[in-house]
Amino acid sequence: MKESTKMLLHYITGIGIVVAGGVHLFTVFLTGPYLQNLAFSAGPYSVIAVYRNLLLAITLELLLLFVDYHALNGIRVILIEFHQGTKWERGVSWMLTVVGILLLVYGTRTILIANALA
Amino acid sequence: MEPLTTELKRALFGWFYPYKYSLERWAYALQRISGIAVAAYFLAHIVETGNVVGGLEVWSVPSTSVAGDVWTATFHFLDNPLFDVGLVVIGFMLAYHTINGIRLALTEFGFLQGRPTRPDFPYEPKSFAKAQRALFWVSVLFAAGTAVYALNVFFGV
């Protein structure tokens, strides 16, 4: 992938985070007492209710995807600013790709299982 | 070529010690620091929310009561002033990173840059003129506001 494509995706995911993250923070802090919303099951925006709501679960999955890319690409940018060289840059990219995929899998697992919880 | 550690050391001190640099450089340093802080929070948050479904040990759909117990235990573990202070800091960092990030996105796509003019003494960067500067201060204010809001939520200040 060209460097410019990576950075364009960085900006697009950044804007996506503002939207999806806004919804996420809104459901936690602005829909009622946040202690109730952080309880496992107590009201329409408590933890498990949010995962069961398909639209909110999809928003969380998108947020996960966006933040995963944005955070790890940000770390990549920082690391290739520290030091330059083909070997270093390739190594950094590969390592971060693996970490990113692992995080994405684990986060998606949480969302899928929580959505399916009876 | 100098060793990697020397290079890393210099790069790190370059950001964390932006003293005697311009305001734009401060904005850059804060964007990097807040980015790393929020990325670290993201990592912890993925692990933490994994406990909603019973954590790493559970790899099939658990019963709701088991998942509920693990989550409630996690919630009580995190119900600690230390973590709350951390969240206030993360709130500040996240808010700053958001608004300053919007400023950077506008810059990337060529907005709010001002017209190109003849460079005159004292060579203030035109790219970081009024609108950009205002947005930088908005991001700082918004971050401070978020921190106050977080203090109110977690400590009733």
Structural write-up:
The complex is a heterodimer of chains A (118) and B (157). Chain A is built from five helices and no strands. By secondary structure, chain A is mostly helical. Chain A has a single domain (3-116), classed as 3 helical TM bundles of succinate and fumarate reductases (Up-down Bundle). In chain A, helix 1 (3-29) packs across helix 4 and helix 4 (54-82) packs antiparallel against helix 5 (86-116). Chain A is elongated, with a radius of gyration of 17 Å. Chain B is mostly helical and 157 residues long. Chain B has a domain at 23-49 and 80-155. In chain B, helix 2 packs across helix 4 (81-108) and helix 4 (81-108) packs antiparallel against helix 5. Chain B starts with a helix and ends with a helix. Chain A binds chain B through residues 7, 11, 14-15, 18, 21, 29, 34, 38-41, 47-48, 51, 64, 67-68, 71-72, 74-75, 78, 81-83, 103, 106-107, 109-110, 113-114, 116-118, and chain B through 4, 7-8, 11, 32, 35-36, 38-39, 42-43, 46-47, 49-50, 52-53, 58-64, 67-68, 71-72, 75, 98, 101-102, 105, 108-109, 153.
